[in-house]
Q: What sequence folds into this?
């Protein structure tokens, strides 16, 4: 392959590969003091490359002008190409539409492009191995960071959920305790109401029994009075119908019946009714007290039933809150375990860094400085994003 073909092949490499090639070729002349500038230029070109980014090889003319203006370069794309043609790097008939990093570097540092394309690039296998190690480092960082972020977020959420569950459990237990106190108070109130009802019944009992006895006597006298009236009507009806013998017999019986004096019965009835009204009047306050006690007892019983229901509901809520708290604690414990696993991933990433550093230290002894510097620079950049331990 001729030098021109080698230059075209070099210009077809990525921005990073072109820069590393240049550093390898001119490390002593330019690399040691310009390596960091090349690092910056590579990333700037990748940013300006709107289509391929870091995988790009050259900028279009508009982006190339922006790149040159950013660094206050006095040369233009046209003047750069004229110098390349005068050196033989570009043929007179060549009219490229793109500007690779290599063209810029040749003119910027005024180096011999033939020396550049023929520079030794070191042991490809070792460079590839170092590059692979660096990618492993980056991947381990990405994985460790993702696991650490995920574990931290899960831990934060689970801890918050646990705290909320504990607070809810405390509230539920407090509500259950208050409900139990209310139930006990309702039972006590009901017991007092029952006792008062019993006392009121006992106080009313003599008056009630006396009144009931009078009521029975009155009912008996009413029955006797009704029987007397019925018999009178019956005999009167018989004395007016039937045969003469039967009528006469009925008249005689009616006369005897009517001669019986009902006055004592009526007087006893009146006296008994008066006594009943008096007994009713005497019983009234005790009856009212008993009815009030019954009502109070019924209210207390309803309150006790409601308090029992509320206490049972509060107990159920407390049990559910306890289960939720236990589940939240288990979730928090699981998050802690995930965080520990993420911590191990961070440690694994550190081990990858150590492995890569050791390999680079050995590779530096037998490979061009430019490639090693770039790998070390990438490793340094990667270490900036190394996940932090808890």
A:
């Amino acid at each position: 392959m001729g030098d021109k073909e080698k230059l075209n092949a070099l210009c077809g490499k990525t921005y990073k590969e072109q820069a590393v090639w240049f550093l390898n070729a001119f490390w002593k002349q330019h690399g040691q003091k310009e390596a960091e500038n090349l690092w910056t230029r590579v990333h700037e070109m990748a940013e300006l490359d709107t289509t391929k980014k870091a995988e790009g090889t050259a900028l279009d003319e508009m982006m190339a002008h922006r790149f040159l203006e950013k660094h206050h370069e006095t040369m233009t794309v046209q003047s750069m190409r004229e110098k390349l043609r005068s050196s033989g790097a570009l043929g007179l008939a060549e009219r490229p539409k793109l500007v690779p990093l290599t063209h810029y570097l040749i003119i910027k540092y005024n180096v011999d492009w033939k020396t550049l394309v023929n520079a030794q690039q070191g042991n490809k296998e070792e460079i590839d191995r170092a590059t692979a190690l660096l990618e492993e480092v980056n991947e381990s960082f990405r994985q460790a960071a993702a696991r650490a972020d995920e574990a931290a977020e899960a831990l934060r959420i689970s801890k918050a959920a646990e705290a909320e569950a504990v607070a809810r459990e405390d509230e539920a237990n407090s509500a259950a305790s208050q409900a139990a106190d209310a139930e006990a108070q309702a039972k006590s109130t009901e017991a007092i109401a029952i006792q008062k009802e019993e006392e009121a019944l006992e106080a009313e009992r003599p008056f009630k029994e006396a009144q009931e006895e009078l009521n029975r006597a009155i009912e008996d006298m009413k029955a006797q009075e009704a029987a007397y009236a019925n018999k009178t009507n019956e005999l009167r009806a018989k004395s007016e119908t039937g045969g003469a013998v039967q009528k006469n017999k009925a008249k005689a019986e009616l006369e005897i019946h009517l001669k019986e004096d009902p006055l004592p019965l009526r007087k006893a009835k009146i006296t008994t009714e008066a006594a009943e009204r008096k007994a009713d009047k005497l019983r009234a306050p005790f009856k009212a007290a008993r009815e009030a006690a019954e009502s109070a007892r019924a209210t207390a019983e309803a309150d006790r039933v409601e308090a029992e229901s509320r206490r049972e509901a509060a107990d159920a809520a407390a049990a559910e809150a306890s289960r939720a708290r236990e589940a939240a604690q288990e979730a928090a414990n699981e998050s802690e375990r995930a965080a520990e696993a993420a911590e191990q991933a961070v440690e694994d990433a550190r081990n990858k860094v150590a492995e890569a550093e050791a390999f680079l230290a050995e590779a530096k002894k037998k490979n061009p400085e430019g490639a090693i510097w770039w790998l070390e620079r990438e490793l340094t950049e990667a270490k900036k994003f190394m996940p932090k331990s808890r």
Observations:
- Residues 3 and 51 are 29 Å apart (CA to CA).
- The beta strands are 58-60, 98-100.
- The two ends are 56 Å apart (CA to CA).
- The longest strand covers residues 58-60.
